[in-house]
Amino acid sequence: MDEAFDNGQGKPKVKDYMTRDVSTVSPDDTVTEVSKRIVESDGHNGFPVTDGRRVEGFVSARDLLLASDGDPIFTVMSDELIVAHPDMDVTDAARVILRSGIQKLPVVDDAGNLVGIISNADVIRSQIERATPEKVGKLLRTLESIHDVEAGEERREVDIDDLVPTQSKVYADELEGRQYELERGLTEPLVVIDNGGSLLLADGHHRVMAARKGGVETMDAYVIVLDKRVDLGMARTAKKEGLDTVDDISVVDYARHPLVETTERLQ
């Protein structure tokens, strides 16, 4: 099981989801210098302010609006800082983020040194991934019961080209949603069944298609490994529908969804 779900009490911690490589600025940097970094960065709207590794404050784009170009950051930064500890439960960090309206919490150790940062996106990802093991466990137990096999579970990267789909179509509107999640690192792992070396995609067809469209070659997955090859119904369905690779999946526009077409005909 992934470390995030195996830390004693099973509760994911801030250290399991925080970003460890944190961009920072110095208290002596100027407003101009930091403003330029925000503009040129990929999605940053502020930075922790550190003296060495010790956190002194946080400066946001809003803090810079009314400041003069040459002002040093220590004169405009917020120094009454809310921080998280690496051993804090992610759910507690989520409450702090929700109630404070802060999008990112610096994570500091007992000495006040910066060790990471956790964002609202990280918190969302942690909640998505918490739900996935329950789904995997239920499928694993079902397979063992129906097919009289023993099954194990692994967390690993899988090649998209090696996956055999088990549904023939995805819908364009939902695909857009999965692309949005993928771009922001919020995509939950796939669920795959390793049936004697054949990797059947049990859950995550829209995620896979979004990844394929974005040029991604591998994806994180929970893999259920069967101790012997069995005749799975989903494998028979895939073969019957001519599904060999994810390239065989069709993308259907929502306007042509069967239920929508039926409604249009009724009108």
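Next protein, fold it too.
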Amino acid sequence: MAEVLGDAAIAARLTELAGWERTDGRIHRSVTAPSFLTGIEVVNEVARAAETADHHPDIDIRWRTVTFSLTTHSAGGLTAKDFALAESIDRIAAQHDAT
């Protein structure tokens, strides 16, 4: 099982991730895609990355805005897995000009 990170470690990791915030034991970020279909492409690529990592985000789609929410349910908090997937989400979003 992945180790739950402490508050100091979480705060430090968040400084490395633009646009991500911590709320209620999760980190989350919303991105706005240039079009609805581009937003869906981002979601599809994130889904593939999540499946490969065996770590799945909660995803909310509202027209061109996609919100990703991460926590490690099995560990009961935030772990390194969440931050690794957040970095992947950021790369995927940037490739599609979703900001």
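About the second fold: The chain has a mean pLDDT of 96.
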